[in-house]
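From the pipeline queue, job 12 of 40. The input is one protein chain; the requested action is below.

Action: predict structure.
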Amino acid sequence: MSVKKRLNNARREFMRSLTKNIGKGNRAGEQKFLSSKVNRVLISRPNHRLGNLLLITPLLQEVILTFPDAKIDLFVKGGIAPLIFKEYEAVDQIISLPRKPMKELRKYLAVWVALKKNKYDIVINVDKGSSSGRISANIANAGCKVFGDEFEEGPILFADYQHIAKQPIYNFRNILPYFGKSNEARPIPAMDMRLTTEEIAAGKKILTDLVKNDRKSICIFTFATGDKCYPPGWWEPFYELLLKEFPNYNIVEMLPAENVSQINFKAPSFYSMDVREMGAVLNNMAVFIGADSGIVHLAEAAKVPTVALFSVTDKNIYQPYRKKSLGINTNETSIEDCVEIIKTILGSQ
């Protein structure tokens, strides 16, 4: 591990130790009835990573379903959020911290000041382990604050409570009686970046121009960060098996910004810097396969059946859950069994 990474990890742990008790004395379940009218909600996820931002789209949908007339502000980091949430009309303001605060200190401080000026009925911190998220919930001017901590019955009542996209929704539903709303046991919304018909049509043209035929396509993404990245020794035999077992499908590789391929660029490949264009191309695939990463969540949010591969991260926390999507623990599953799972998904289409 590099010195820079060790310093960043130490900084995060230090900040978590300082902020972990923020909000402990303000449990939503202890609040009295507030108001049946909710005009403004703040969702806080001050993180710049693609996957982490896409993972709040289920919560965003849940808030819209519950309070359809409310305006929703998002407290995030970096500049990608406007692209991800552009088709969500309920999103009013995207309040974004700069990715590198020390290089843009004045802007960084100005964002916190701007956050304090707004008035909200509810503020929801998505990740209980986020120091900036807990601070934002603490300083926000709101009548009801959800800091992201587990409520006592959550893990008991819901087998999937630990999932990173679902837990904030269960926490949100837990406070609804204090707004005169029932805690309905409806299905959890799936991730959705709300691609338009025009975007999807453009994605289809890009894919058709790449493969130059009308066969269905299987997409693989062979990259991931750190230990999550599978080596060529795993991907190459898996790719060869896909070619053998699915001769009537195109096998297409989506490339990362790093322009690396664990199959040595053997498949037709696609890359874009536009996440909505990437999502539109993915929407036209028959199935997507990749290691746990932001692109996995992008595929899920683009509504393509998604097979996420897990070897070091917890499948129960991060796996896709849309119909026909799933996570596979490859420590327990062979590449042959993975292919059989993909056959089942394709066979149901």
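Job complete. The chain has two domains: 3-179, 197-347.
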